[in-house]
C-alpha cells in the first residue's frame, strides 16, 4: 500500500493491457486537468502528471456515424415548430401571449378608427363653396368631379397620416406592453417559483419539515400549495415512522444477539465440549456475527437518513487516511494493493458518519475485487469548487444498468439475497444516505476492464 507522498509507487495505475488503452484518465479528477486549480491562484487537488490515474469510467464518447440499422428521424415543419415552442419557458409564453393579444387588439382598434374617420370625413365634407348655377353644364359636371376627387384624396391622405402615426404609437406602446407583460407574468408565477424552490430544497434534504405556506387569496395556486403541503406532511410522517421502526427493531434485536454470542463463546470455551459441538458453535457464531453486522448497518442507515445533529469542520484527507489505515490489514489479507492520493479538503458535517462513509467505500472495494493482485485507488481533493472523495477498484465487470441498483439496501451484484458472505448489502446504501444528509451526491460508473469508480461530491466549507 502506498500513502500520500509515498515515493515512486504513487498512482502507479494499472497495466495498459488491463485498461484497454495507454494513458487512462478519469473525467472526475484528472491528473492532467488544469481546471482543478482554485480561484485566486490557489491550486486544489492537482495530481502528478507523470503518473497514471485510475482508469477511465464508462464507455467513451461516441461521435461516429449512426450504427448499422439506425435511421435518422425526420420531422415535419409543424413538429419542428412544436419543438421550438416546447423549449420556451412559461414566463416567456405568457409574455408573448400578452404581447400578441395587445397587438391584435391594437390593430383591430386602429382598423375601426380608420373606418370611422373615413366615414365621418365623407359625411361632413362640404359642398362646392361657390355657386355654379350660371355655369355651363359641362363645366359644372367637371367641377363636381374634381371636387369629389379632391375629397377622396384628402380623406386618403388624412387616413394615411393617421394610420402611420397610429402604427408608430402602437409599436411603442406594444414594446412597453411586452415589458409590463413580462413583469406581470413574473409576479403571477411567484407562487409557483416558491413551490419549485421548496420542492428542490426538500429533494436535496433528508428532512421534509419545511412547507410552502403560501400566503394570499384562496385561489387555484393557494389550493395547489396547500395540497402540496399536505402531501409533504403525510410523506414526512411515513418516513419518520419507517425510520423509527427500523431503529427500534434494530435496538430490540441487539440484546438477544448479544446474549446468543455470549452463550456461544462460553460453550466454545468449555474444555469438555466435543469437536462437533465446537464446530457447530463456530458456525453459529459466524451467523450471529453477520446478524450483528446487519443490525449495526440498519441502525447506521436509519441514523444517516435523519437530519445531522453534529456539524463540525472535517478534513476528508484525515478521514480517508484513517479508513485506509484501519482496513490495510484486510486489504493485505485479500491481496489488494491500495494506492492513496490524498489532498486536504474541508467540509462541515458529522465526522463519525463521514468516516463510516469512506470506510464503507474502501471496504466495499476490497470485498468486490479480484481474487489475486487486485488494485484499489483512493483520492480526495478539490475539483472545480467541489470536494471530491473517489474510490476506484479492479474487480468483476459491472453492467451499467446494474449500477444504480447497487445503492439500494440489501442489493448485491450477481448475488442472491440469502448470500451474505460479502456483507449484508447495506454498504453503498449507507454511503448514499450519509452523503445526502451532508447535502452532497454520490455517483458510480463501471470501470473499463472491470470494477467500479465511486465519486462522492460534498460542499466545501
Automatic annotation (TrEMBL):
Q: What Pfam families does the record point to?
A: HAMP, HATPase_c, HisKA
- Limits of the HAMP domain: 186-240
PROSITE patterns xref list: HAMP, HIS_KIN
Write the record's keywords in alphabetical order, separated by commas.
Answer: Kinase, Membrane, Phosphoprotein, Transferase, Transmembrane, Transmembrane helix, Two-component regulatory system
Show where the Histidine kinase domain sits.
Answer: 248-461
Instruction: Kindly state which reaction or reactions the protein catalyses.
Output: ATP + protein L-histidine = ADP + protein N-phospho-L-histidine
Q: What Enzyme Commission number(s) appear in the record? A: 2.7.13.3
A GO MF annotation of the entry reads: phosphorelay sensor kinase activity
Matches recorded under CDD domains? HAMP, HATPase, HisKA
Q: What class of enzyme is it?
A: transferase
Bias (Pro residues) ranges: 54-69
Stretches the record annotates as Disordered: 1-42, 54-73
Q: Would you name any one GO CC term?
A: plasma membrane
This chain's protein is named histidine kinase
Q: Which organism is it from?
A: Streptosporangium carneum
This protein's gene is called: cutS_2
Amino acid at each position: 500500500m502506498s500513502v500520500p507522498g509515498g515515493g515512486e509507487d504513487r498512482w502507479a495505475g494499472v497495466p495498459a493491457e488491463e485498461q484497454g488503452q495507454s494513458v487512462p484518465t478519469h473525467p472526475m479528477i484528472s491528473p492532467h486537468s488544469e481546471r482543478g486549480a482554485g480561484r485566486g491562484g490557489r491550486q486544489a487537488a492537482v495530481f502528478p502528471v507523470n503518473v497514471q490515474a485510475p482508469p477511465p469510467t464508462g464507455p467513451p464518447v461516441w461521435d461516429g456515424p449512426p450504427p448499422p440499422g439506425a435511421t435518422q428521424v425526420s420531422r415535419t415543419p409543424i413538429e419542428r415548430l412544436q419543438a421550438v415552442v416546447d423549449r420556451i419557458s412559461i414566463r416567456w409564453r405568457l409574455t408573448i401571449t400578452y404581447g400578441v393579444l395587445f397587438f391584435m387588439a391594437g390593430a383591430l382598434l386602429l382598423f375601426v378608427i380608420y373606418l370611422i374617420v373615413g366615414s365621418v370625413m365623407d359625411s361632413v365634407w362640404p359642398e362646392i363653396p361657390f355657386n355654379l348655377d350660371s355655369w355651363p353644364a359641362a363645366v359644372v359636371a367637371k367641377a363636381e368631379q374634381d371636387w369629389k376627387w379632391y375629397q377622396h384624396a384628402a380623406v386618403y391622405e388624412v387616413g394615411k397620416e393617421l394610420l402611420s402615426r397610429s402604427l408608430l404609437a402602437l409599436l411603442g406602446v406594444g414594446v412597453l406592453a411586452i415589458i409590463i407583460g413580462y413583469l406581470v407574468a413574473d409576479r403571477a408565477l411567484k407562487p409557483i417559483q416558491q413551490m419549485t424552490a421548496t420542492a428542490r430544497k426538500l429533494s436535496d434534504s433528508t428532512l421534509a419539515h419545511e412547507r410552502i405556506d403560501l400566503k394570499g387569496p384562496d385561489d387555484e395556486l393557494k389550493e395547489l400549495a396547500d395540497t402540496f403541503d399536505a402531501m409533504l406532511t403525510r410523506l414526512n410522517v411515513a418516513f419518520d415512522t419507517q425510520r423509527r421502526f427500523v431503529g427500534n427493531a434494530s435496538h430490540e434485536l441487539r440484546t438477544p444477539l448479544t446474549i446468543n454470542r455470549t452463550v456461544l463463546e462460553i460453550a466454545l470455551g468449555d474444555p469438555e465440549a466435543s469437536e462437533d459441538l465446537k464446530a457447530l458453535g463456530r458456525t453459529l457464531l459466524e451467523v450471529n456475527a453477520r446478524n450483528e453486522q446487519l443490525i449495526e448497518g440498519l441502525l447506521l442507515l436509519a441514523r444517516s437518513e435523519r437530519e445531522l445533529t453534529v456539524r463540525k469542520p472535517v478534513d476528508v484527507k484525515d478521514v480517508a487516511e484513517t479508513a485506509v489505515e484501519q482496513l490495510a490489514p484486510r486489504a493485505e489479507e485479500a491481496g489488494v494493493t491500495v494506492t492513496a492520493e490524498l489532498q486536504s479538503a474541508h467540509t462541515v458535517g458529522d465526522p463519525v458518519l463521514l468516516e463510516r462513509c469512506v470506510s464503507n467505500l474502501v471496504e466495499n472495494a476490497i470485498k468486490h475485487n479480484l481474487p489475486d493482485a487486485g488494485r484499489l485507488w483512493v483520492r480526495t481533493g478539490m475539483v472545480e469548487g467541489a470536494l471530491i472523495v473517489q474510490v476506484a477498484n479492479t474487480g468483476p465487470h459491472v453492467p451499467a444498468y446494474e449500477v444504480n441498483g447497487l445503492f439500494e439496501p440489501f442489493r448485491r451484484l450477481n448475488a442472491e439475497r440469502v448470500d451474505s458472505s460479502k456483507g449484508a448489502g447495506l454498504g453503498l446504501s449507507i454511503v448514499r444516505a450519509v452523503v445526502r444528509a451532508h447535502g452532497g451526491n454520490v455517483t458510480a460508473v463501471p470501470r473499463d476492464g472491470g470494477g467500479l469508480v465511486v465519486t462522492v461530491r460534498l460542499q466545501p466549507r
